[in-house]
Amino acid sequence: MNKLSDEVLNKYLDNDLSQAELKTIRDQLQSSEEDRKRLRALQLIHSSLKNIEGESISPNFTSTLMGKIVKKSKAKKEQRFFIFSISSVFIIIALGIIGYVISLILATPQSAGDTVAGTKETVTVLENLIVPIKTFLSKLNISMIGSVFSLGLLISVYFILDLMKHSKGNLGRQH
Amino acid sequence: MKNLTDLEIIESVKRGNKSDYAIIIDRYKNRAFSLVKRMLKNEMDAEEVLQDCFIKAYDSLKTFRQESKFSTWFYRIVYNTTLTKLSNRKRKIESEMSSIDEHFDLESGYDFKVSERKDLSEFVKDMVKKLPENYSLVITMHYLNEMSCEEISETLNTSVSNVKVMLYRSRNALRDLLLKNNYAEELL
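^ Those are the sequences you sent over. The predicted structure of the assembly is below.
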């Protein structure tokens, strides 16, 4: 009789065989001392592996890690608040500019001879809209708006980078 | 609180009870540490990488969709983060992890005269360390982390049959050593 293969013995160990296969293997095991020895050795390895103890990490691991996690989420919150404040400022500025443009449009006097047809009136309204926008977006105003935005952007970027550096530093110190 | 399942704890953390995450850390730190240490072979690096793994898992809790067990999901983070650390060290073992070596020799480089003084479990522990990295990982995951072959295959991103082959070959190699050495008398 051929000896049992290693694969079959491993499957037997893992209870990974059908009832029919089990019966054949049990018969074979009864008749072969060598197969029984190989199986016993495999069972011994299996039980020794089950009893291997794992490594233990330093006792203060959990507290150190939790400290880091709390600090990190706090830094995230601060960052979110900062970005929210900066974007609010930009939105307010943008709203101010839009309001200013609208007020200019409304303040522009209506043309005197607007009593004729509706089409003429529309053209006049459009003209009224374009003129103040043109005035507002004159070279001088554009450069002023650009400067204000650039300055605001530079300041925000500086603070964001500083905040990120600060929060990274905090995490680094915990190591 | 410690009797709660992983999912119950995660739900609690998601609801804002951040401190409950400490239970998850306590539950998995030693088993995951064994795994990382086995891959990195350095205690300091292993602890540092494990911290990163727990932070990554915490940050990704919202994306955990409970399609697999938390342990499988977490061990996958551990495995991938450790692989990244290893590739940073320029140790190209990733390809080794996905392939199965046909042969490995446990006998070379082992002093059996010294091993005579050790008991069987010490002997087996030493031998597991000498297995090729992917085999040793499979043994650690299966016996120490109590993961099934399916869970291991999901974590290592390989097939279940590959995992079984690695498991069987490792056990066979250990058994052959056992039979060739003084430990054979324990079989009587």
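Residues 61-107 of chain A form the longest helix (47 residues). Chain A touches chain B at residues 6-7, 10, 13, 37-38, 40-42, 44-46, 48-52, 54-58, 61-66, 68-70, 72-73, 175 (CB under 8 Å).

Shout if you want it in another format.
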